[in-house]
Amino acid sequence: xxxxxxxxxxxxxxxxxxxxxxxxxxxxxxxxxxxxxxxxxxxxxxxxxxxxxxxxxxxxxxxxxxxxxxxxxxxxxxxxxxxxxxxxxxxxxxxxxxxxxxxxxxxxxxxxxxxxxxxxxxxxxxxxxxxxxxxxxxxxxxxxxxxxxxxxxxxxxxxxxxxxxxxxxxxxxxxxxxxxxxxxxxxxxxxxxxxxxxxxxxxxxxxxxxxxxxxxxxxxxxxxxxxxxxxxxxxxxxxxxxxxxxxxxxxxxxxxxxxxxxxxxxxxxxxxxxxxxxxxxxxxxxxxxxxxxxxxxxxxxxxxxxxxxxxxxxxxxxxxxxxxxxxxxxxxxxxxxxxxxxxxxxxxxxxxxxxxxxxxxxxxxxxxxxxxxxxxxxxxxxxxxxxxxxxxxxxxxxxxxxxxxxxxxxxxxxxxxxxxxxxxxxxxxxxxxxxxxxxxxxxxxxxxxxxxxxxxxxxxxxxxxxxxxxxxxxxxxxxxxxxxxxxxxxxxxxxxxxxxxxxxxxxxxxxxxxxxxxxxxxxxxxxxxxxxxxxxxxxxxxxxxxxxxxxxxxxxxxxxxxxxxxxxxxxxxxxxxxxxxxxxxxxxxxxxxxxxxxxxxxxxxxxxx
Length: 609
Ligand code: GCU
What we know:
Strand order of the largest sheet: 4-7-8-9-10-11-12-13
Number of strands: 15
CATH superfamily of the largest domain: Glycosidases
CATH architecture of the largest domain: Alpha-Beta Barrel
Bound molecules: alpha-D-glucopyranuronic acid
Strand content: 5-15%
Shape: globular
Low-confidence stretches: none
CATH topology of the largest domain: TIM Barrel
Radius of gyration: 24 Å
């Protein structure tokens, strides 16, 4: 039996009736239910279709366009429930496409999923629990997410059938999300015409274009408001235009033209690199790959193509500089892709709140540079949807950031905490600070000074400094007895040359480079003096000790919070695992560097031999 589990909307504690089949009907229902539960007088609900996704709030009336009325109702109820004043003037989202990308496979397994199995796939079929999906629709709409990509970007086996014989089921899922202003998107397989006897998937072959056009016509006939197709091509063994000697603009444009008559967008991922690198090869530098592939194609993509670029040049590490591709393509519609699924950031066991990180992104990359945003989902079938109950703050926070990239991270986390838990003020403050600091703590024990990839290969949880060192993935730190890091400056791999000059200057010398990216950009000796006078090796040791102590301190704070059950138990159990993880990271990394460098810890703390 499905349960309505606590979310940031605890005042909406009943299932939304299936009869609420449009955003306006949901808005009416939610307003009535919310006001009754909060014991306050309901405002009038006015619909002005010209406002689209926007709204205006006043004590006596919520006015908004189609989905905007629903967004307005949630904003009104959340402000009242939190005891905050209403935002003044017209409100509208910054990015028109606020996408959530599920990496769900049709067999029910979620790639990089840390919250259980898929909420809508099982055993090759689309199956879901109506009340849970309505609850999720309510969560997405109240956060402001408006596109949900339903399947993994790695389209394998039966997933390609979602736009073929499984289309009627996909159309029913689209219907389930439609009342919440959430449109579906689907990941497709570039080479699919081959499975249908076309004989090639060459994007310039007439029959290939024809096949995709016919497919698109059938897909949009079944789901007229489908947002578009999402494609991972020529990446990590996925098929793509390179097989036929074609460029990525040729591949993307062919698909874009098939879906353009239906108003669909073709989201093409820029996560392309050599995943069969030889570690002996020092001329290839993985972070350079996306820019090398795409920057020369700027201006060559059709208008309905969106190039989706991961926020950093590697792959969702704890700390990376902003991808240079995002600065390099002014004539291309870009989407920035972030990852809510905590693949490298604690796997929804270790606490890692992301709004502070996204705010840094806004500060580094003018948000106007992007036409859209996408986030890899952290959702799953766990009763609380996100594994760790606090990971819900990242889903909520993503929606708030996608709505307003300048939103204050602390205000978002406070709003989430208040709505979810209603703790006494001092405890709420403590929870907000714990979340605000969680990334810094995690970064210190796992990946300080910009060093990524010291994780266990494949599953990516826990320390393993040698794990990726001689592997194929282009992810090396090259620590030896004297030094660690890669020189990515003009004198090194030349990666910094991909940035505009004013950004490049920040990274080009070790002195100018911020500490938290020092070893991403530079190869430094262990006796290198940091700005604060400490040696590099001492800083490595200190951060690992401090990060672990930070996790232990978080456990103390958590114990003092009167969280409701089952969140209290769930959070406590995960905190035990986080501490174990943090101690392992501290000791493994410290021993690794101690064995290599022979340097003693200036503070004489325990480092194992
Ligand atoms: C990471 C992740 C993969 C995923 C890939 C992607 O490499 O580990 O599971 O498929 O990103 O973004 O496509």
